[in-house]
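quick one if you have a minute, typing this from the bus. below you get a single protein, a line of residues and a line of whole numbers that encode the local backbone shape. could you go over both lines and see whether the tokens make sense for that sequence. anything you notice is useful, everything is just below.
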Amino acid sequence: MHRVRRNLWAALGALACLVPLAMATGSGPATAATDAARRASAPGVTATTIQLGLIAAETGPASSTFGDSATGAQARIALQNAQGGVDGRKLQLEVVDDTSTQSGSRTAAEDLVSSKGVFGVMSDSTALTGGGADFLLQQGVPVTEQSSLTGSEPKYTDEFTYVQGQTPTPSTSLDAAFFKSIGVHDVGYVTYNDPQDIAGFGAEKQGYAAGGLHFCYGDLVPIGAVNFTTIVLSMKGANCQGVFLSAVESSDIAMATAIEQAGLHIKQLYATGYDQNFLDNTEARTVAQGQYFRILVPLDLDTPPVKRFYAALKKYDPSYKGGLASFGAQTGWIIADEMIQGLEVAGPNPTRASFIKNLAQVKDYTIGGLNPTGVDLSKRWKLVGPQCAYFAQLEGSKFLPYPRDGKPICGKVVGGG
């Protein structure tokens, strides 16, 4: 199935090269002078192409959220190729499944770099993708990702995420500010027992305390967990008023179901689920009515960048049938856009070193305007200024902005920085 899909994407990419899109951003067709100057400057780079890789959780427990990441990445790349690629080079993509495991991530990274010879790697799975982090660092391979591969050590200078402050400490009072806005003061936190989330667990507690909240309960669960009965009963016993679950969509639905079955009125915040897949799931829509979701980028805004995003999905993603883009398509698009941004600043004959050095100097990365607040990549290992995020609330069959004015909620950096 994946082979058929990728062959289709290859055909679409070839067609895209013939169709200029005035609405897109990025490099235009190369002049004769730059065409003559292009050369093979690094692994995966030829005079006419750049080979890129994507590690995605196409199978396994994380696939409920990241299984279709390739669709978003391919759409962003097709859009760029329609504008002539980057410095006249067309972008090509290899997709490898990490099976939602650290060992699978390591195998995928080695396959992409050693066997397929890619220039850079996009990672769109969970924190379990840390399995390949050391290998990619040793090879000096630039990485763009939906969350930090390791989350704890700034030695991974080859990694870039679109979230400022990859390390779990210092923490912020952002989540506390959100819960206080909905009248919740006793809050629990549940996430996965992988290295990144374990490292960040203490920072979340610290952020709650800094924001004036009481941490009523915390727990770590296996990735893709779908049995939350014991956890919900424990939160009931601890008199929790709210809970933040940082997990994939299958776990979101399981948590909401367990809370409803227990007859509790715990206000819930989910890190994933803001997509059409969730809205189309009758069970999910029923059990999560009135609950809240963290948003990667506010896709309900009627802005040119949002219109460009959806126009590209309609044109280049055969699986997109309208509505709110899937979470995987959102993250796939974003990490592909950040990879393209790195290539654009790496120079006409990019090297892995020039990519890493120059992307680390970008101070206002906005995902092509999708993120109104922007990210300072020069401080990607350091939380600075107020930390802000967008939220939505499920009402009926729609996600409505929360607060209703659509403005982000912000918190302060705590614990140093």
